[in-house]
UniProtKB/TrEMBL annotation:
This is 4-aminobutyrate aminotransferase. Its EC number is 2.6.1.19. SUPFAM superfamilies: PLP-dependent transferases. One of its GO terms (biological process) is gamma-aminobutyric acid catabolic process. It catalyses: 4-aminobutanoate + 2-oxoglutarate = succinate semialdehyde + L-glutamate.
Length: 504
C-alpha cells in the first residue's frame, strides 16, 4: 500500500501502568505492548497507551475546576490535550495517552492530528472558506459545485444525487423532516406549480393549519436517537433526560425489534419480532391520529443501545413506506462514513429502491441530507434556508477525508479489522461468561457492542487500562474506533478488556 511507512524500531516494549490507586492490587501488574502495535497507516501515532496518573490527574483536576467556573463540566468525560493527541490516541494534560475507541462520540474518521488534514487545513482554499464564510443559499462560492461533486457527492449513496448541506446531525434530520412535510403538502395541493392560498398563508402566521386540513407527523422508533433540536427531539426516544420539559409534537413511535443474541439461536423469535414491528409500522401509518408523511430510522440504533435489525426488516420497511407513499429517511449520522465496513450502513440491506433521504454528520465533519427526487426540493426558494446552510471549510475537510479513505482503502480495512475484533470478542465472551453479553455487530465492521453487567464501572475502569470507551443505552459498551483502527490496536483493546473483567 502506497501510504504505508517504514516504522521505527523493532522490539520496543511499552509499559503501561494502570492508574495506581483506582485499581485493585491484582490488576496493578504491568502489561506491555510490542512495536507491532505501531500504526502502519501513518507514522505519527504512539506505539501504545501510556498511563501516568489517575484520570483525571492533578493538572486535569485543576483545569476542570477553572473551567467549571464558567462552563458546565458535569458531562465532562476527559479533559483533552488535542495538540498531543495523535492517530488513534487521545491525550490528557497529565501526560496520559489512551487508545480511543470512542473517538469524540464516533466522529473522528482518520485520527487526531492527521497530517493530510493538517495540510488541507493550511491550504488557501480552506483558509478562504474559514475566514470568508459564505451565506451559502445567497452567495455560494463560484467553485461550490466542484467542492460538492468532488467531496460530499462523490460518496453519495446510490440513487441519491443531490444534497442539502447542514450544520450538525440534529440539523440534518430536522431539515430532512421539513423537506418531507413540504413534499407531502405539495402533493396534496396538486403539485409544485400550485400556489398557496391566502387562507393557508394567513393560518401559517397564526401557527395554525388552514380549516379542513389535518396535522402530519414523522414516525420514529422506540429507543431511537435523532438529535436534540425541537423537531429531531420529538423523534428521539432513547432517554427521558433528553426530552424532559421540552415541548414535543404528537408524533408516533413504533417498537424497534430488539433482537436476542446469539442470533443463530433465536432466529425464529427474532424474525417474529421484526414481523411484529413491521405490522405496528403499517398500523401506525394507516391509523395514527396524526398521519406520518415520513419514517425515520437508524440502520443501527446507536445512542439507544446499539440495537440491530436484519436487512430483511429494513427491506420490509422500504416496501411498506413505498406502498403507503410515506418517505423513508435513513439517519446515518452515526453509522455513516465507513464504520460498518460499507461506506453507508444501509448498503448492507441491498435495497433495489433507495431510501428517499439519507442524513449524515459526525465522521463527515460536515452534515446534511442526500436525496434523489427533484420533488424534494421545495416549490419555492427560501422555504429551506439558513444563513450558513452548512460550511464550505467543513465540506473541504470531508473531501480530504474521502481522499484518505479511498487512498488507504479504509472502508475495507474497517470490515477486515472488525471481523478480526469480533472473532476475538466472541472468544472473550466464552471465556468470561456474563461479562460480554449480547455481543453484536458481526459483519458490521468495527461497529460492535456488548452489554456489561457493570457498564458504568466498566467504562470508568477502562481508562486505567489505557483505553477510552463509550457506552450507549442502559448497559451497552459500544466500540466506535476510527477507520485507521488496525489489528494491532484491536489487540491492545482486547488485552485491556480482559484486564477489566479479571480485576473487578
Ligand atoms: C443517529 C444520530 N442521529 C442524530 C444525531 C444528532 O447529531 P448532533 O449531535 O450532531 O446534532 C446523533 C448524535 O449522536 C446520532 O447518533
Amino acid at each position: 500500500m502506497a501510504a504505508r511507512v517504514a516504522l521505527r524500531g523493532s522490539a520496543i516494549l511499552r509499559t503501561i501502568r494502570p492508574a495506581a490507586c483506582s485499581l485493585p492490587r491484582e490488576s496493578r501488574r504491568q502489561f506491555s505492548f510490542s512495536a507491532a502495535n505501531m500504526s502502519s497507516f501513518y507514522s505519527w501515532e504512539p506505539e501504545g497507551p501510556t498511563i501516568k496518573t489517575q484520570i483525571p490527574g492533578p493538572k486535569a483536576k485543576a483545569q476542570i475546576a477553572e473551567l467549571d467556573e464558567v462552563f458546565d463540566t458535569r458531562s465532562l468525560n476527559m479533559l483533552t490535550d488535542y495538540e498531543k493527541s495523535s492517530g488513534n490516541y487521545i491525550a490528557d494534560p497529565d501526560g496520559n495517552v489512551l487508545l480511543d475507541v470512542y473517538a469524540q462520540i464516533a466522529s473522528i474518521p482518520i485520527g487526531y492530528n492527521n497530517p493530510v488534514l493538517r495540510k488541507a487545513a493550511q491550504g488557501d482554499e480552506m483558509i478562504n472558506g474559514l475566514i470568508n464564510r459564505p451565506a451559502l443559499g445567497n452567495f455560494p462560492p463560484n467553485d461550490w459545485a466542484n467542492v460538492l461533486k468532488t467531496g460530499i457527492l462523490k460518496v453519495a449513496p446510490k440513487g441519491l444525487n443531490q444534497v442539502f448541506t447542514a450544520m450538525a446531525g440534529s440539523d440534518a434530520n430536522e431539515t430532512a423532516y421539513k423537506a418531507a412535510f413540504m413534499w407531502r403538502r405539495q402533493h396534496e395541493r396538486g403539485g409544485h406549480h400550485v400556489e398557496f392560498t391566502e387562507a393557508e398563508m394567513a393560518s401559517a402566521m397564526r401557527n395554525e393549519l388552514p380549516a379542513g386540513s389535518s396535522e402530519l407527523s414523522i414516525m420514529s422508533f422506540k429507543t431511537a436517537f435523532h438529535g436534540r433540536l425541537f423537531g429531531s427531539l420529538s423523534t428521539t426516544r432513547s432517554k427521558p433526560i433528553h426530552k424532559l420539559d421540552i415541548p414535543a409534537f404528537d408524533w408516533p413511535q413504533a417498537t424497534f425489534p430488539l433482537l436476542k443474541y446469539p442470533l443463530d439461536q433465536h432466529a425464529e423469535e427474532n424474525a417474529a419480532a421484526e414481523a411484529a414491528s413491521l405490522k405496528e409500522v403499517e398500523d401506525i401509518i394507516l391509523n395514527y391520529r396524526v398521519p406520518p408523511c415520513a419514517v425515520v430510522v437508524e440502520p443501527i440504533q446507536s445512542e439507544g443501545g446499539d440495537n440491530h435489525a436484519s436487512p430483511a426488516f429494513f427491506q420490509g420497511l422500504r416496501a411498506l413506506t413505498r406502498k403507503h407513499n410515506v418517505l423513508l429517511i435513513v439517519d446515518e449520522v452515526q453509522t455513516g462514513v465507513g464504520a460498518t465496513g460499507k461506506f453507508w450502513a444501509h448498503e448492507h440491506w441491498n435495497l433495489q429502491d433507495p431510501p428517499d433521504m439519507v442524513t449524515f454528520s459526525k465522521k463527515a465533519q460536515t452534515a446534511g441530507y442526500y436525496f434523489g427526487s427533484p420533488e424534494l426540493r421545495p416549490n419555492k426558494p427560501y422555504r429551506q434556508f439558513n444563513t450558513w446552510m452548512g460550511d464550505p471549510a467543513r465540506a473541504l475537510l470531508f473531501r480530504a477525508i474521502v481522499g484518505e479513505i479511498e487512498r488507504l482503502d479504509l472502508v475495507n480495512n474497517t470490515a477486515r479489522v472488525g471481523d478480526y475484533l469480533y472473532g476475538k470478542l466472541e472468544a472473550l465472551a466464552q471465556k468470561y461468561p456474563g461479562q460480554f453479553e449480547n455481543l453484536r455487530g458481526k459483519g458490521m465492521g468495527t461497529f460492535i457492542a456488548f452489554d456489561s453487567p457493570r457498564r458504568d464501572e466498566f467504562l470508568a475502569r477502562a481508562k486505567g487500562f489505557g483505553v477510552n470507551i463509550g457506552g450507549s443505552g442502559q448497559s451497552a459498551v459500544r466500540l466506535r474506533p476510527m477507520l485507521i483502527f488496525e489489528e494491532k490496536h484491536a489487540d491492545i483493546l482486547l488485552a485491556a478488556l480482559e484486564k477489566i473483567v479479571t480485576s473487578w
